[in-house]
Automatic annotation (TrEMBL):
Superkingdom of the organism of origin: Bacteria
Record field: catalytic activity: (S)-malate + a quinone = a quinol + oxaloacetate
Organism this protein belongs to: Herbiconiux ginsengi
Protein name as catalogued: Probable malate:quinone oxidoreductase
Family to which this protein belongs: Belongs to the MQO family.
Signal peptide boundaries: none
GO biological process, any: tricarboxylic acid cycle
One example GO MF annotation: (S)-2-hydroxyglutarate dehydrogenase activity
Amino acid sequence: MSNKSVDVALIGGGIMSATLGTMIKQLQPDWSIMIFEQLSEVGQESSNPWNNAGTGHAALAELNYMPEAPDGTLETSRAVNINEQFQVSRQFWSSLVAQGVLAHPGSFINPTPHMTFVRGEENVDYLRRRYELLKTEPLFEGIEFSDDPKVIYQWAPLLVRQREKDEKIAATRVNAGTDVDFGSLTHQLIDNLVQNGAVLRTETEVKKLKKQKDGSWNITVRDRVGNTPHTVNAKFVFVGAGGHALPLLQKSGIPEIRGFGGFPISGQFFRTDNPAVVAQHQAKVYGKASVGAPPMSVPHLDTRVVDGQSSLLFGPYAGFSPKFLKSSSWTDLPASIRLHNIGPMLAVARDNFDLMKYLIGELLASKKKKLAALQEFMPTAKAEDWYLITAGQRVQVMKKDAKRGGVLQFGTEVVTAADGSIAGLLGASPGASTAVPIMIDLIQKCFPAEYPRWEKKLAQLIPSFGKKLNPDKKASEKTIAATAKVLELTR
């Protein structure tokens, strides 16, 4: 592999690299692609179905996409934007199903109602006001609200059974929600890339990135078996290595990464495979985050469908580990500290005391206390039915801020070199669900010469390409119905 040259190098074998590689293969089939994954197979970190909740993030239930302002007002724009992005991903997947790139839709996406469930008078009032605003948005057509325990019982009986009768509760439901197995999706996309000429190198760790005079990159990699170093030259490099993207971009030396830091958060889920319990719940139900909790720690009781089998997950229970990946080193966090990012990182620590307090509380929580959190959602939960699994590692973005010195970001952020020769993705949710629009933005920035002639193909793959669905109700209904039919999501 020494001195091998490729058009595109993808570092990391997760959903982001799989999406970008597939998109490039659709747009420019003659370009050579090489994928580097340090584990023995792809999709084993955040894309693994048991490392995430598998939500098709469309803001149907996630309250953090529509927070209440200090003056009590609510605004729908972010929720609508997240939904727009997920619709783009769905359209891309449906085109790949029609081509045969992806297998039977049920192998990676399944219809699963999305619900929000809250307790207490103030939260009920908030949820009602949120519903009143969202029901007028075309992309949220069909959303239902109820504060009647009998109705909520019909939607999700485990939320109501054995609950105190005088407790104030409310819920919303959207039947058009989905459960997505991003592990299966990743495997299928990368398998198709390899079948069409891409080279996949597993158990291969990227050690160094060095820019050449011609604008290309020399990538020094080391095989874990044999410990043999190699060099590959690539015209374009994408770093889609999850939490490990930060240190790799730092190794590249691009000035655009200066000031960025990473705050790793680990976590756990309770899981049950007991058929008697699983059969009583068919929904993804999101609650409201605790004070100081990051958005990724919003409690939710989820139906998961993996390899055709249904289970339930509850969590996540946040924790702290200095690792940037489940499989990486305990030195990741200290090794990522630089003179240019220590200021923003200290500013974030100063301004996020509630988050630190929350994480310490989560770290000290016993299994009994974690079960009690589940029982707040599901009063009938029994310890013998549930077991803890370790969630994927998340690295939240810390970056410079002119006013505060540094801020903690809870979304995804693309870092791109000025010449477009290298780019990487930092951050967490809702990344996987919005992978397609993220990658469209990336190729527009990184391939400005090619992008204009690629637009026609993108419009074929994504009918709403270049448009917004929400302002046009008829177009929204038509596009969503066509996509749902191909993906077999129509009930």
